[in-house]
């Protein structure tokens, strides 16, 4: 049960002048990622690209030992995110005009021995989902002020959708303080479909919309990616939209 395949798509959307999203598909390492440069901040695209490049370089060296059982997936993912953070801060130090640049990131790492498990780490509001038996489940919770308000019962979900602070992050790569990712593990079943996305998708589509389109794709990652991005654009495409869909062929 080792053959998991990921398909990624990214679109500039209909309102933005540049694409500040980036993604990574490393099927041979069973590692996938999405990063979303912080909108309105200088160098958001560079921050996202820097984070993805740092993750790729580090993973190529250290993913193998994790698959062989010599180190723990959670520690591996925490290290990848720390490397991405240091790469962003280092570049901003060398290029002062990039000071303050930042990005979200969500990582998916599948370990198959002794049984398949999805390990998910994230910072910010890029999300991970799992589709199983016709039902979509979120695997991450946004690091935003709104999510904090929802947890405390200050806002309802309906009020949160139009709240002016709905996209203010409480955690992100590039922030000068230490960045602590949330990391969790989820056992996998053969027919599971996994999804990573930037908030350009979730701004436009509710979870039930994502579920419906993924079901319609019948387990095909290419069809799912194309359908999700097309629907986000059809509903206005307010932001860059990036989707990575992972499934077992």
TrEMBL record:
Top-rank taxon, per record: Bacteria
SMART domains: PP2C_SIG, PP2Cc
Transmembrane feature ranges: none
A GO molecular function held by the record: protein serine/threonine phosphatase activity
Sequence ranges assigned to domain PPM-type phosphatase in this UniProt record: 1-248
Signal peptide span: none
Stated name of the protein: PPM-type phosphatase domain-containing protein
